[in-house]
Design a protein that fits this description.
The chain is an alpha/beta fold. The protein has a single domain, classed as Aldolase class I (TIM Barrel). Helix content is about 30%, strand content about 15%. It contains eleven helices and twelve strands. Strands 7-8-9-6-5-4-3-2-1-10-11-12 form a twelve-stranded mixed sheet. Helix 1 links the parallel strand 1 and strand 2. Helix 1 runs parallel beside helix 2, helix 2 runs parallel beside helix 3 and helix 3 runs parallel beside helix 5. The longest helix is centred in the N-terminal third of the chain and has 14 residues. The chain is globular and about 55 Å long. The N terminus is likely disordered. Bound molecules: S-adenosylmethionine (SAM) and iron/sulfur cluster.
């Protein structure tokens, strides 16, 4: 897969020399789940719908960033499938010159219904979030009793032809330990790459503590009790996950050590929230208001210059492990994970 633009393409390079090729676009902050590590149980204040970028506005941003060297997009949220007519947006993004890859992260609840139209619209890759295979544990962490709908969504996605589906599981201490091997077995038998993501301090409830993170190296040790793992060379230089192949050749896993060993030095992504704010890091405390620029008639050149300036000062890395760490005001569902 292309991870960097070819030499003939323009390049968007930040102040640390990192080449930015990836834009994650949040299409909504709304969600039908209330995962404990992301959203509050109730009384969520959502963005006013008038502040959400329209499909045309999102497509304009994609056209602009593709001229700057970004060739990969990921749609996320909130739950991206809560946004009506999402396949229409995917088709519009697919028509943008220079965009080679469009992916989506979803909780899969609505996937059974939409997998075919997403595929037809040009969505290439899917990451599905699934933390537990035990129905009660699923309900505890997602605060919804609907494991079967997610499994049905996954099944349909595979049947309509999505290949290399990845499953994201947030790794929370005293919760995930019992789920790890079940997810691993499912991944091996169904052909999904399971990725464990260390729980990050982006939960609305603000209950995150370092002690609540199940660390990547502990997960690897647990899996190694049953399977021999072979590290994939330099995987952290290409993406956020340290990857391991099963020595018997049956599948692969990824461990995203966002807390214990972040991939910031190789970060190649920026994000845009559903209300059109550019964030150069998941943990940014500053944002660049693209929506206002777009809605006040800024030219492409002005937007390009603004983007370049924002990217130039992209954070060298997050500060979770430092004393001066400051939590962003937005929780994960309002940023776009
Ligand atoms: N609703 C979709 C979903 O859950 O797949 C997309 C948005 S969700 C915010 C994107 C990803 O962020 C999911 O894989 C979710 O598990 C992950 N996530 C959410 N909160 C997190 C946290 N506090 N720490 C680590 N990962 C988190
Ligand atoms: Fe919704 Fe995804 Fe957040 Fe869960 S992680 S509450 S599914 S946005």
């Amino acid at each position: 897969m292309t991870t960097t633009p070819s030499a003939s393409r323009p390049q968007l390079i930040d102040g640390m020399g990192r080449t930015i090729v990836n834009l994650r676009i949040s299409v909504t902050d709304r969600c039908n789940f209330r995962c404990t590590y992301c959203m509050p149980a109730d009384n969520v204040e959502f963005m006013d719908r008038s502040n959400l970028l329209s499909f045309e506005e999102i497509q304009r941003v994609a056209q602009i960033v593709s001229r700057m060297g970004i060739n990969r997009l990921r749609l996320t949220g909130g739950e991206p499938l809560m946004r009506k007519n999402l396949p229409v947006l995917i088709k519009m993004l697919n028509e943008v010159d220079g965009i080679d890859d469009i992916a989506m992260t979803t909780n899969a609840y609505f996937l059974k219904e939409h997998a075919q139209s997403l595929k037809d619209a040009g969505l290439k890759r899917l990451n599905v979030s699934l933390d537990a295979l035990d129905p009660e544990k699923f309900r505890d962490v997602n605060r919804r009793d609907c494991l079967q709908s997610v499994l049905d969504g996954l099944d349909t996605a595979r049947k309509v032809g999505f290949k290399s589906i990845k499953i994201n599981a947030v790794a929370v201490r005293n919760f995930s330990e019992t789920e790890i091997m079940g997810l691993i077995e499912m991944g091996r038998s169904e052909g999904f790459e399971i990725r464990f993501i260390e729980f990050m301090p982006l939960d609305s409830d603000k209950v995150w503590e370092r002690d609540k993170v199940l660390f990547g190296h502990e997960i690897v040790e647990m899996i190694k009790e049953n399977y021999e793992l072979v590290p994939v060379d330099n995987s952290l230089e290409i993406g956020p996950a340290s990857e391991y192949n099963f020595a018997d050749g049956k599948g692969k896993i990824g461990i995203i050590t966002a807390v214990s060993n972040p991939f910031c030095d190789h970060c190649n992504r920026i994000r845009m929230t559903a209300d059109g704010k550019l964030r150069t890091c998941l943990f940014s405390t500053d944002e660049t208001n693209l929506k206002d620029l777009i809605r006040t008639g800024a030219t492409d050149e002005t937007i390009i210059e603004t983007l370049k300036q924002a990217v130039l000062v992209k954070e060298p890395g997050h500060k979770i492990n430092l004393d001066d760490f400051e939590r962003p005001d937005r929780a994960m569902h309002a940023i776009g994970g």
